[in-house]
Each structure stands twice: as structure tokens, then as C-alpha cells.
Design brief:
The chain is globular. It contains 10 helices and no strands. By secondary structure, it is mainly α. It is 78% helix and 0% strand.
Length: 246
């Protein structure tokens, strides 16, 4: 897809704008992910869709375990910073798994015992890692910098699906979707302007448009829900009410 050494050379030649762009993306990503933990605890329902938790975990774990590649094979400051960023995301994803085990069984497998549900989630994580490693081997993504795009698209698809299935904003907020939309904008502008031509293909740009418009639409939808139905805000819904809607 792209040459890793060439891309790192471009990063060295455009250090300031790339650091600013990725710094903003990281700020918005952290806001999204930390907000998701807080919202799940508040609403007692998971806030990140199951598919996204599995996918993000597999993606971030794959980068983190390749420590030697980033710190010795490439030995480049940017990849070391990128590794630290994905390590922080991976740690939060372990919190998501804990919240799935705590809140998810009632919604997704109420007839199962807790050990059965935990075994299912563990098996799902293993399958996700295997599937991601196969998918990545076919991508030609030496620096792990093309991988974030499909992870962001997955949130648009499955986050919207979760909202529609629940028929409620439970587990999701304007802050989460607004942060996601800003993160998408910062990421695609940065890579589109200062990375190599592979990140300016119509397919890659189309993914960015889908992510941005999807995030914007969900932010607006949740804002409308909050303004017109204050009595139905997620914080005021009981678990029993949400279970019926699900």
C-alpha cells in the first residue's frame, strides 16, 4: 500500500503540522474513550458496540505486541509515540471488556450464566485477533497507519446500529459522538495533506467522508434527542426500561 521508510521520511519533513494534527486526534480519541467508560457506568449498559470493542482490541493489541518492530527495526520517534498512544487505548479497552462482563449479559444473553457469557466474550476476543491478523496481512500496512481507518468506520456502522436497535440514546452521548467527529477530521486532514499518495486515494478519502458525515449525523441526532426528550435521557432510564426496548 505504501513504503514505510518513505512515509517516515515525509513525517520528518513535516513534523510540526503532523504532531499538531495527531495531537488533536489523540485528544479527541481520549475524550471519546474515557467518556464511553463513564457513560457505561452511569447507564449500566455498554457504550461501545461489541464488534468495535473486539475490533479495536485486536487492532491495538497487534500494534502493541510488535514493540520490537517500532523500537528497533524502524527505531523512529513517531512510531514510538504511536505505540504509546495505542497502548493507552488498549488499556481502556480492557475496561470496556470488564464493563461488557458487568452490564452486557442482561442485554445480549439474559438466559446464559455469567461464566458462559464470559467464555463467549473471551472466545470472541480470540477470534477477533485471528481475523484481524489475517486482514492486516492482506493490507500491506507496514506502519499500522492504514489500520485506524476501518476501526473508525466500524464505530459509525455499529454505533448507529446500537442506537437504532435500542431505540434510545442509552450508552451514547453528544460528547462521545462529537469527539469522534473531531477526531476523524483531525486524522484525515493530517494524513491527507502530509502523508504519501496512498492516503489520498478516492477510497481512503471516501472512508473519511463516511466517518465524518456519520459522526456528524449521530451527534446531531443525539443533540435533538436531548433537547426534545429530556425525560428520556439515558441517565434517567432504568435498566428494565432499556431491556424492554432492546
Amino acid at each position: 500500500m505504501y513504503d514505510g521508510r518513505e512515509l517516515l521520511g515525509r513525517i520528518d519533513h513535516h513534523t510540526a503540522p503532523i504532531l499538531i494534527g495527531f495531537g488533536l486526534a489523540m485528544l479527541f480519541q481520549t475524550t471519546l474513550m474515557v467518556s464511553a467508560v463513564r457513560v457505561a457506568a452511569r447507564d449500566r449498559h455498554i457504550s461501545i458496540p461489541l464488534f468495535c470493542t473486539f475490533f479495536w482490541f485486536a487492532h491495538d493489541l497487534g500494534c502493541v505486541v510488535r514493540f520490537d518492530t517500532w523500537f528497533h527495526t524502524y527505531d523512529h520517534w513517531f512510531m514510538k509515540c504511536f505505540w504509546v498512544g495505542l497502548l493507552s487505548a488498549l488499556l481502556l479497552e480492557f475496561v470496556y471488556f470488564a464493563q461488557i462482563l458487568k452490564y452486557g449479559r442482561q442485554e445480549y444473553a439474559p438466559s446464559w450464566t455469567q461464566p458462559q457469557f464470559a467464555a463467549l466474550i473471551a472466545a470472541g476476543a480470540v477470534v477477533a485477533v485471528v481475523a484481524w491478523e489475517y486482514f492486516r496481512s492482506m493490507m500491506g500496512d507496514p506502519l499500522y497507519l492504514a489500520g485506524p481507518a476501518p476501526t473508525m468506520v466500524s464505530y459509525v456502522v455499529f454505533g448507529t446500529a446500537m442506537y437504532l436497535r435500542r431505540r434510545s440514546a442509552v450508552g451514547q452521548t453528544v460528547v462521545m459522538w462529537g469527539s469522534f467527529t473531531c477526531m476523524v477530521l483531525a486524522w484525515w486532514v493530517t494524513v491527507g495533506v502530509w502523508f504519501t499518495g496512498a492516503f489520498r486515494s478516492w477510497q481512503y478519502i471516501a472512508m473519511g467522508v463516511v466517518c465524518f458525515l456519520g459522526g456528524l449525523a449521530m451527534t446531531a441526532r443525539l443533540a435533538v434527542d436531548r433537547r426534545h426528550s429530556p425525560a428520556d435521557r439515558p441517565a434517567r432510564r432504568s435498566p428494565e426500561t432499556v431491556a424492554v426496548l432492546s
